[in-house]
Structure formats: C-alpha cells, structure tokens
Amino acid sequence: MTLLELLVVLVIASLMLALVAPNIGNVMPGSELKAFARQSAALLRELRSEAVSQSRIRDLQVDVENRVFVSDGKARASWPEGVDVRLTENALPSQWKDPFVDQPRLQFYPDGSSNGGELALSAPEHVQAEYRLSIDSLTGEVRIDTDG
C-alpha cells in the first residue's frame, strides 16, 4: 500500500464519520424510550410476582412531579429527561380509585389479578412513537404495545 492510498482511505473514513455522527443523536432518544418501556414493564411484572409470592396487595403510583414510580412509599424507578409518563384515566374503573390518594395507582392482588390500567410512555420532542403498557385486570398480564 502506498501512502497516497492510505490517505484516501483516511479521508473517506473521516467523511463517513462526519456524516454519521450527527445522526446517532436522533436514534438514541427512540432507543432510550424503548429501553425505558421494557424496564417499566419489568417493574410491573415484578410487582405482580411480589403480590402473588407475598400474598399481599402491591401498588404502583406515578409521581409525575418527581418523575418516579413509587411503591410502598419508596421510589422504585425514575424515568429519563424528555420522557413523559401518564396513567390514562379511562383505563382505571372509577370504583377502584382510592378517594384518599391524589393520583390513581395500579394495584396487583395476591391472586395474580390487578385493577387494570394503562401507562403511556412518550418522548414528544424527539420521537413520534408512544409505548403503552397495558395491564389486564383479570390476569395481571403486562403487555407492551407501540404506537407510531
């Protein structure tokens, strides 16, 4: 190989890096949202398992102000900047909402069922995708649906 060939290869590699590097930032928010959706689903499944194994009701509240999921008064997981989390109001039956709690919460019961609900996770500034974590009230099954 001559020095000229080596320089040509370095110039081509530099150009490719200059074109690809700015686009990496556009891909990361989408993957961060997907990873957070999987992490949130794992937390919900863990709470269901704890409810069954410990024979007690386990709940999860969404603390939007502090950007954390709260269970038993303790923060269980926080979410990244730029990600919005909301518990859709129409997902929880009104008779199952606790009148003494400001925010609705998801509950898992010792028989494996839950009060049902849906968490919507989105990152409006970066990606148009939204992940919905649906919790079946009869089985307590947690399912991740994507929109976008």
UniProtKB/TrEMBL annotation:
Keyword Ribonucleoprotein: no
Localization annotation: Cell inner membrane
Main location: membrane
Domain General secretion pathway GspH: 37-137
Topology of the protein relative to the lipid bilayer: Single-pass membrane protein
TM regions (residue ranges): none
The entry's keywords: Cell inner membrane, Cell membrane, Membrane, Methylation, Transmembrane, Transmembrane helix
GO BP annotations listed: protein secretion by the type II secretion system
Pfam families from the UniProt entry: GspH
SUPFAM superfamilies: Pili subunits
GO cellular component, one term: plasma membrane
Entry similarity comment: Belongs to the GSP H family.
The protein, known as: Type II secretion system protein H
The species this protein was found in: Marinobacterium lacunae
